[in-house]
Amino acid sequence: MSNYHIKGLEEYYNVYRKSVNKPEEFWAEVADEHFVWRKKWDNVLSWDFEKPEVKWFEGAQLNITENCIDRHLLTNGDKNAIIFEPNDPKEASEHITYHQLSERVNAFANVLKAEGITKGDRVCIYLPMIPELAISVLACARIGAIHSVVFAGFSSSALAMRINDSNCKMVITSDGSYRGAKTIDLKGIVDEALEECSCTTSVLVAKRINSDINMKEGRDKWLQPLLDHAPKQCKAETMDAEDPLFILYTSGSTGMPKGMVHTTAGYMVNTAFTFKNVFQYQNDDVYWCTADIGWITGHSYIVYGPLANGATTLMFEGVPSYPDFGRFWEVIEKHKVNQFYTAPTAIRALAKENLDFVEKYDLSSLKVLGSVGEPINEEAWHWYNDNIGKKKSPIVDTWWQTETGGIMISPIPFATPTKPTYATLPLPGIQPALMDENGKELEGNQVDGRLCIKFPWPSMARTIWGNHQRYKETYFSAYENKYFTGDGALRDEVGYYRITGRVDDVIIVSGHNLGTAPIEDAVNEHPAVAESAIVGFPHDVKGNALYGYVILKETGEGRDHDNLRKEINQIITEHIGPIAKLDKIQFTSGLPKTRSGKIMRRILRKIAGKDTSNLGDTSTLLNPECVEEIMKNAL
Ligand code: WTA
């Protein structure tokens, strides 16, 4: 029996039992079996969810890039590490072997050093899905710099906020990016952001769209000439197990996005372990995750997890609808993809299109299909299973979070029988608990509860950058001695979990987490707006869409409401990015409030979702009369 690679259900249960009964022994075996360490750990785990403080593999020393690159060179140097598939299918794809990846990461690492970046410095990466993105991430890890990748769809002020929060010394970007038929002026966005960031003293610019851009003297440099002159070997920095590897921002229900801090050894061990088991990767397989590296899915399951296993990982620059809705399926045929990992929102969008787009292509290489980011509805699950997997490729519905670093609840293909809409069973080492609102743990089946995790796992985020108190309050205060996920879930009679959705003010739109508070702040910036409240409502492609209730300062007739709606969405685009735009904006004279002045979002949610049969008790509201008005004018 190998603890590292599980192949059957009985084996899963055995390994799982051991991981719960003897967690330290279990994780030590996994870590021992599969990685190269400069020095082994003195202590597998110490933890305290009160403080909270968690440390894995303390005393160990390593560099994650030696595990993701160097150790494959002898045996697998000529194997493809990364296949890059560009936005435009007419442009050639690029195959990067482990040898080439090694040279490119090392050269990049030397460039970072020459630019004055040292261990512990923060480097912001704002790049499209081109090889330089994965390479710069690894180059940072090589020298111990902490990368903070910001999804290149965020606006300049969202970018500036993230750069300032973690004091990034450098920004790595490109002249622009392709997105379907459009180009985006990334460098212009960076220039605008940096007007607000005094911490950033250098900007490296990759060439992608050959646009004419402004280069600021003394700050901006083209990347390629520097790489051309850099030595192709760079000694990997020795990192302690708990040294930060990266910061990745995720939306919270209130205020600033949270810079989740992931550390080195535990993150590596668990992303590698989960990648191997959840995708059942075999040596010559081609694996494709369609996420962007700007999100945690891309960090863990495009870069670190696959490369730690010596896998071939495909990076796709484009979108599923360009040049037509067959693009995903074309890429699968072209590269003979074996494992395909995508989001329910993409599946729903593609399921709406003509099946000809699918049937034109040979998808017989597929062995495992994955889903992540939000609950997958039954209809989408069956469409995926029938038309893409042809009922022979198990679907792994993987539940996890930016904060968890790696997949937590998921079937193991060919071992765990799947069940539509269920993420099924916890992976080894993961101990979920369902809690009721009063903090009692719920036992048994079919209970709807709040999902917590009651024991540490190696890839959990250790803190929020610069705000440990917020980390404690957000995740460890709702339930004593447990990590609270913010999700609701239920458990069936065999112990399978089904995640039902967020129970806080985070709304998942097209798989992207959005906090309502920052969007409301943006809306309130409009000079005509007095107050606003944003809720989610069900949407058949996006999963959820955003509905804004807006009180204007002056309600006078004759205001051009459509124009106001456009202006409000424009402000949201500037402050956060187009992903946070409101689908519906209803102007109203009041918002339902409790006597303590809190907006009753529950009521607004129901009205937005056209579910007004049972609004609950509204008599305790400060202003019950506004509910009627809102219902009457609902969009
Ligand atoms: C949701 C993405 C249901 C959940 C990896 C979680 C899911 C949030 C699933 C984290 C799933 C993710 N089924 N819900 N399989 N996967 N979620 O941080 O609400 O972008 O808390 O991490 O997405 O989103 P994040």
Task: Sum up the structure in keywords.
635 residues, Rossmann fold, GMP Synthetase, Chain A, domain 3, 8-stranded mixed sheet, 31 strands, 24% strand, binds 5'-O-[(S)-ethoxy(hydroxy)phosphoryl]adenosine
Q: How does this model look, in words?
A:
The protein is of the alpha/beta class and 635 residues long. It has 2 domains: 9-475, ANL, N-terminal domain (Rossmann fold); 506-632, ANL, C-terminal domain (GMP Synthetase, Chain A, domain 3, 2-Layer Sandwich). The protein has 19 helices and 31 strands. The strands form 8 sheets. Strands 12-11-8-6-7-14-15-24 form an 8-stranded mixed sheet, with helices on both faces. A 7-stranded mixed sheet has the order 5-4-17-16-18-19-20, with helices on both faces. Strands 22-21-23-25-26 form a 5-stranded antiparallel sheet. Strand 16, helix 10 and strand 17 (312-316) form a beta-alpha-beta unit. Helix 3 (64-76) crosses helix 10. The longest helix is centred in the N-terminal third of the chain and has 17 residues, at 98-114. 5'-O-[(S)-ethoxy(hydroxy)phosphoryl]adenosine binds at residues 250, 295-297, 371-375, 397-402, 423, 485-487, 499, 502, 508, 513.
